[in-house]
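lol ok so funny story. i was supposed to be doing the assay writeup but got distracted and ended up predicting the structure for this chain instead. priorities right. anyway since i did it might as well share w the group, maybe its usefull for someone
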Amino acid sequence: MTKLSVNINKVATIRNARGGNTPDVLKFAVDCERFGAQGITVHPRPDERHIRYADALAIKPLISVEYNIEGNPKGVSKSRPYGFIDLVKEIQPAQVTLVPDAEGVLTSNAGWDTVKNQQYLRDVVKEFKACGIRVSIFIDANPQMIEMAAKTGTDRVELYTESFASGYHAAMMADETSAFPVVIAPFVEAAKVARDCGLGLNAGHDLSLENLAYFHQQIPWVDEVSIGHALISDALYLGIEETIHRYLDCLK
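and the output, tada:
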């Protein structure tokens, strides 16, 4: 079964735009679980423009579903005297997803180069796994990078799916559904390589109600999808409960 992990960063973005505590990010995380989400994802960045380090700490005792914390291990909070690695080790989430975000980047836009960063990733993976935390590495749909990711000792990889989402949307807008298999092909190949390497498989970035069902049909062995921007946007129209139910339907 593929689990749905809801990324709640955008809820924090709305809160931070006005200050105060509306909407309540902690309550939102609890409600997502109540409405059927099988995981909660946060991606605290050093500038804390959405999820803050304090949010990440406060969420852990409030939920019982899997907690996934994404981020660059090199990140250091602007509000606390420690970095991303220290935060994750203090929280002890079910999973940490390593993302090579440059400071100030608008959103995640590339996976790790697991060749150039092989030793660094080995060290980080080892440190987290020693704490009993499952590790996933955010990665492009590149067989070589996946094979080298496996050599770091990571438990999973998360496929960066932006190019699939944009290609799928372009094909749909052009009424060229025959292009769908071409768009998904690199991801199917990458998923098979991950499976052959003994890695668990996650996916995320721009997955939506438009494309999720097709993605899942073609790669049904995905362990988890992490979805934030599209899901929170859909919730503005549908409400969060109905939205979560619709995303779960895509994964059946």
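The mean pLDDT is 95. The longest helix spans residues 180-196.
back to the writeup now i swear
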